[in-house]
Amino acid sequence: MRIALFITCVNDLMYPDTGKAVVSILERLGHTVDFPAAQTCCGQMHANSGYRAEAMPMVRGFVDTFRDYDAVVAPSGSCVAMVRDSYPRLALGDSDLESGVAKVAPRTYELAELLVDVLGVTDLGAVFPHTVTYHPTCHGLRMLRLGDKPLALLRAVRGLELRELSGAEECCGFGGTFALKNSGVSSAMLADKCGAVDDTGAEYVVAADNSCLTHIGGGLSRRATSTAKPIHYAEILASTGSTS
Amino acid sequence: MNGTGNIVALKPFPDAARLELSDAQLRANLRRATHTIRDKRLRVVGEVDDWEELRRAGAAIKDDVLARLPELLEQFEAAATRAGAVVHWARDAAEACEIVTRLVLQTAAREVVKVKSMATQEIGLNEALEAVGIEATETDLAELIVQLAGDTPSHILVPAIHYNRSQIRDIFLSKMPGVLAGLTDDPPALAEAARKHLRAKFLSATVGVSGANFAIAETGTLVVVESEGNGRMCLTLPETLISVVGIEKILPSFSELEVFLQLLPRSSTGERMNPYTSMWTGVTPGDGPRTTHIVLIDNGRTAVLEDEVGRQALRCIRCSACLNVCPVYERVGGHAYGSVYPGPIGAILSPQMTGGGANKTLPYASSLCGACFDACPVRIDIPEVLVHLRQKGPKPAAERAAFRALSWIMRDRRRYAAALRAARRGSAPLRGFGRLRRLPWPASAWTDSRDVPLPPKQTFREWWTKR
After folding, report:
1. Quick one: CA torsion of A110, A116, A120, A121, rounded to 10 degrees?
2. A23 CA to chain B: closest CA distance, Å?
């Protein structure tokens, strides 16, 4: 199986460790992973902010880069949702692009989907002796319907204690440019999310999207009462016991 | 044609929201109320095995109606006229108010009782009636609270959601004639006070004004769905009944109504069935009103219909499920949206109906979390329409320039890799700080409440090429 890695722009620049974790997980499972260097960004920020024309070159770029792989995996529910949910809509009217998207989009997976649905594994032999709480990010939850898949993976991790997050399914308030354009509302949403994370007393807040984790982490580090650290669940699954 | 009336925001959303965000009591009231209805809705929706099929059926019926609206409206008009109703057409809010005002003035009445209705709120009917000396009394408990307070509704279904019960007691004590000073904030006591106040109005009024939840094209029948029974009083006791109905409320026949009578109560009040469903067709000698008028209003609806993506907003049955699950609505309440249609549905409906002004900021009043789409009983893809409206609307020049530049960089692997390298190098001197706490405008919108992490020493692609 030819698996291609799509490392989103946020991960590439800010969170390379998440990408390294995905590589290590897949190689540990015996798969060869390819990182096509032609990849850039999925274009979500442009499209969602209302800049469709500006997003289209990235849509085309993604399709050209990944069209010949059996599977594409990305450690981001949000970017995968862009490809699977929005690309078909954006491609409408351009028959070449439509057929390219029809080929690539169904084979583009968020990490938990690839592991659980395609490769059929939930126990990766990871060890992470810490308390964690899981925030299901909106796009993973409502566009990809990831459901319990990331939780199933986390539950199989040795030493990990999962603590329930109240109001888990509520948005953290990031929403791309929403965080800037409606900063006040976004911050109010964040304050409630941070409060819920604090209430768990967990050492780590875990999610499938580094953009949401940047928001939550940025809020937590501002609060005197908060101690939880943000971490992508891929890094937990790659962990073999030493504290990250 | 674009709509007018109480759907035109006076202030951009971020400004209006800032004001509401500073009200801690409001946020507490909203949180409590929306979570209560939200949980109730989830419970009763969970009881229905074929809920997803029902949602799809509801969406399909509404789409069919929108596709052949002129034909169905004419069919409705003919049937209603045959049954003895008088049908009027209004292009906008002003015209609708003028028609209703004239109809009331033609009677001897200078007082009307009202059934809770979004359409009459939308056209600003109470104010128009007041201007010619006609007193309109809202008979829905929550509408009455808002009316007594001299306030405007802030929720489609629960217009007084922004008040808690002790605030409501204070409003009754200061504004409701004849209320005893010992009134407590016990809900039954408050309801009893309102009942006494309204009973006199029901018995003396000769004109009733309503909206309609559905209008059946085949028979010319109007349908009102409600919880308190006050609506049924207004619909049956007065001699004259005037109903203001949006043109999108049409259903082809009674068999489609079955789908919506399942979808609506569960989505709006979290009830299996609403307590009162009233239907009336024209006039019946010796039973109910002797004269019935139906005012069909456009007020921007045909403008919405013209947009292929945006028209799904007209499927809306005003259940308000999207408001109750929306994290933005929960923090700021309905007034921030500057329209009688607040929340996610308002953010797509109001700008389309009015075609601009301060409403243009509404499509940005969402984090696109998608909770509204999941809750919508007629599957309006609100996030899709929000993005579509952002795409269609005007944008700040600086923002446009920034997105263009980003697009130019991101469409080419070399430029992109170079930009990542530059960002990593450029921030290197700051790395000792770990994270940034204060950035200049416009990034200050972020750092007002959030820290910014700094990029590590190596990008992923640098690591990959060296491994």
Report:
1. 110
2. 10
Element (H, E) at B279: strand B276-281
CA distance B118 to B122: 6
Cβ-in-10-Å burial (0-12, 13-18, 19+) of A199 comes to middle
* Sheet with strand B214-216: strands edge to edge: B250-251, B214-216, B221-226, B276-281
Nearest partner of A16 among A240, A243, A234, judged by Cα? A234
A115 Cα to chain B: minimum distance (Å) = 21
- A41 closest CB neighbour out of B365, B410, B453: B410
- Answering whether pTM is above 0.90, one says yes
- Please tell me if residue B448 touches chain A, with a CB cutoff of 8 Å: yes
Q: Does B451 touch chain A (CB under 8 A)?
A: yes
Burial class, B458, CB count within 10 angstroms (exposed 0-12 / middle 13-18 / buried 19+): middle
What is the residue-level pLDDT of chain A in tens, covering all 244 positions?
899 999 999 999 999 999 999 999 999 999 999 999 999 999 999 999 999 999 999 999 999 999 999 999 999 999 999 999 999 999 999 999 999 999 999 999 999 999 999 999 999 999 999 999 999 999 999 999 999 999 999 999 999 999 999 999 999 999 999 999 999 999 999 999 999 999 999 999 999 999 999 999 999 999 999 999 999 999 999 999 765 4
Rounded to an integer, what distance in angstroms lies between the CA atom of residue A223 and that of residue B349? 38
- From the number of C-beta atoms within 10 Å of its C-beta (0-12, 13-18, 19+), residue B357 rates as middle
Tokens 């209302």 sit on residue:
A50
Cβ contacts of residue B74 below 8 Å, gap of 6+?
none
Closest by alpha carbon to B308, among B30, B56, B63? Answer: B63
Q: What is the reported pLDDT for A244?
A: 46
B433 near A CB under 8 A: no
* CB contact residues (below 8 A), chain B span 11-70, against chain A: 13-14, 17-18, 21, 27
Q: Is B449 on the interface with A (CB under 8 A)?
A: yes
- Tell me the three state secondary structure of residue A240: strand
Distance CA B243, CA B192 (A): 28
Residues 6+ apart with CB under 8 A from B216: B76, B222, B223, B250, B251, B252, B253, B254, B257
Question: In sequence order, what are the beta bridge partners of B453?
Answer: B435
Choose among B371, B269, B360: nearest CA to B327: B371
Q: Answer whether A160's CB lies under 8 Å from A130's CB.
A: yes
Q: How confident is the model at residue B433 (pLDDT cuts 50, 70, 90)?
A: confident
- The CA–CA distances, whole Å, from A169 to A119, A207, B347 equal 27, 12, 22
> Which of B22, B31, B368, B395 should one mutate to test binding to chain A, selecting the residue with the greatest count of A CBs within 10 A?
B368
Rg (CA), chain A: 18
Which residues, other chains included, contact B98 with Cβ-Cβ below 8 Å and sequence gap of 6+? B128
Q: What is the average per-residue pLDDT within B41-53?
A: 98
Which residues, other chains included, contact B164 with Cβ-Cβ below 8 Å and sequence gap of 6+?
B25, B28, B29, B32
Give me the phi and psi of B388, to 5 degrees please: -60, -40
Return the ∠ at Cα A143 (arms to A137 and A144), rounded to 5°: 85
Is B332 in Cβ contact with A138 (below 8 Å)? no
**Residues B272, B73 contacting (CB under 8 angstroms):** no
